[in-house]
Amino acid sequence: MKYSLKTKLTMSYILVAFVCIFLLSICANIFLEKYFTDYVATNQEQKNQDIVATLSSQYSHNNGWNSDVVAIIGINALESGTIMKILDQTGNVIWDATTHNNGMCQGIVLQMAQNMNGITPFFKGEYTEVPYAIYSGTEVVGQAFIGVYGPYYLNDTDLAFIATLNKFIGIVAIISLIFSFILGTIMARKLSMPIIKVINSAQMISKGFYLDRISQKSTTKEMDQLTITINDMAQSLEKQDQLRKRLTSDVSHELRTPLATLQSHLEAMMDGIWEPNKERLASCHEEVTRINKMVGDLEQLTKFESDNLVLNTSNFDIASLIQRTVGNFETDFSLKNITVDVKVEPCTIRADRDKITQVLINLISNAIKFTLENGIIEIKTICLSETIRIIINDNGIGISKAEQPLVFERFYRTDQSRTRHTGGSGIGLTIVKSIVEAHHGKVELVSEEGKGSQFVVILPIN
Ligand code: ADP
Questions:
Q1: Protein residue with its CA nearest to atom 11 in ligand 1
Q2: Residues paired with 148 in a beta bridge
Q3: Is 201 helix (H, G, I), strand (E, B) or coil?
Q4: What is the DSSP annotation of 266-307?
Q5: Could you tell me which of 408, 428, 404, 427 has the C-alpha nearest to residue 416?
Q6: 3-state secondary structure at position 225
Q7: Ligand 1 within 6 A of 364 CB?
Q8: 10 Å Cβ neighbour count for 38?
Q9: Quick one: which of 248, 346, 360, 441 could link to 436 by a disulfide (CB 3.0–4.6 Å)?
Q10: DSSP state of 405
Q11: CA–CA separation, 443 vs 441, rounded Å?
Q12: What is the pLDDT of residues 103-159, one digit of tens each?
């Protein structure tokens, strides 16, 4: 069974209120059981002592027992619900409530039993007569038997007090429950409204409407974080979508030219307009090779540019990796008579060795491609405490200021490289950037047209 957030929150508020009321009533009952009954019993005892004190002072005042005065004291006590019997020092009864008004006495005892059994039917109490000695100075001059209902007795006033207390708890309970219901509903609405908005936006995003963003601000920290996360997700999905669309259009655009050339060449030959001689077939072959290379590059691109590029990291010395990679280009250097100056210091980094090798290959092969004959290529490293800088410097054709931010884009080739037919497809630097960023590093480019370029790869050591 699934409940809405609103129901759950409202129910939990009510539950909390309910538990509080329950605890409050338990505490109140413990208080009644322990302190209030003690207080009532002490009060009763005090009342009895007061009666005994009145009887003593009557004896001392009259210098003996005055049955009329004793009767008045007895009747007063009886009227306030106390049954007693007073004996003199020889044991003769001076006054007895049961003799005075037996019916009233029985009524009082019955009332006491009713009161106490009314609170709880399991109350074990009984009516007893407690003897109190009556003194005149230090001499015992009589005895008073005062009727008490034990272990304690709650009279009508006490019961009214308890009833008021319980009524009060009941009212508090009802108010708390109503209040918790209202508060729960308001809070639930406050919380669920932004969640519903987030759900709606997430649903729109899942349907491909990536431009949808949640603008609603919430006072709840977690809600704000959720909104930010959903917006970020929408942004990254939007970016992915744009990349996918752009890749498709880029690829078709890049393939169209060689395919069109190939098609027109072949048609011309088939229609007999052109002789299928060696040069023309070679030109067709060149176009096919271009297409083939482009497909290969695309394969590489999907491998390296995917956002979930998996890094297989290990510790290795970057200096020896650079030396080895430079060594593999020896023939290319000598073909163009390029001077290579390698100044690398030993530095162990934690990274994906194969992918870093790919970065070096792409940057060095570019440097060779875009450096003129007899040029100079410098490769050096600067090992800092947390990062390493790999600098690849050439004195080649350089890149204009306007084109510098574009060279890392997919399939981007500068006009210079296009006119020179360097043969690239413009994805080498895209791969470099993507690998370096997957390592939480960055690539910087400083270049001046006609003077040369400097690519700096900054990688964290760990
Ligand atoms: P390509 O396969 O064309 O070399 P890249 O992505 O590696 O693709 O480079 C993109 C473009 O950036 C190149 O076509 C070239 O115009 C320019 N470029 C890259 N490296 C250099 C360099 N060292 N000197 C001058 N231009 C460069």
A1: 413
A2: 128
A3: helix
A4: HHHHHTTSS---HHHHHHHHHHHHHHHHHHHHHHHHHHHH-T
A5: 404
A6: helix
A7: no
A8: 11
A9: 441
A10: G
A11: 7
A12: 888 888 788 778 777 776 777 777 888 999 999 888 899 999 998 777 777 777 888
